[in-house]
Amino acid sequence: MNLNENISRVRELMGIILEETSFGTMDSEELMKEPEKKYYIDKSDIQGQGVFAKKDLKKGEIIGLLHVIKKLGSDYDFTELGRLHNHSDSPTCHNVLINNKRFLVASKDLKKGQELTTDYTLQPDLEQPRPEWKLNENNQREMIPYIDGYRTYSPFKEMDYIIVPGNGIDCDNIVWDLVLLGDDGSIVIGPKNSGAHYLKNASMVVELPLKNGEDLNDLTSDENKLKKWVHDYIENVDTKFEIRNNVNL
Q: Are 142 and 187 in contact (CB under 8 A)?
């Protein structure tokens, strides 16, 4: 199949009507449109929420856009499908990279209601499954604070802080606005449902939730006010010195 045939196939399966131009010149806003949604969101037995086939799908069928890569390893425009599909060692789907856009594709014929999963290890630039992602007696992944954090389904929503290894935090589907404190001393605001945030030079991030009625706009209107809030908050909650022993304040 030549390039033009590939382009026609993608157009057909995605249900996207394009002007007569090359596939690679489409902007990310146009690609993020999903006029024919082939999935729905529901509770997953793997982790939190997942995505499921809205109808029977054929092997090789493109289900939708996962993300647009703006900068490999650090900057992505994720779609809902890209954010919510789960990892599996026996995935039902795989993904295909076309230029800087990655699409979810059915790896076999799928029945309506089957969960749509991929093997994260085949995308080394994204979050990877870890050895501590253990399964419980119901074959479900056990929840861990630094993975499930302050998400709506998480049992850790009331924790005063959560320490996360790495430098990236996904703020979608969380119950609190967050102040993100890097171990390098950097501070980034992570409002609810604002997507992924990266603290460039950090190797660890502390999530500090605004759960005491703080006004996010007021707090961020002055750098000194924000720094004072962080200092006072840590003084109150860091009773084990887990933060102060690891973060350059």
A: no
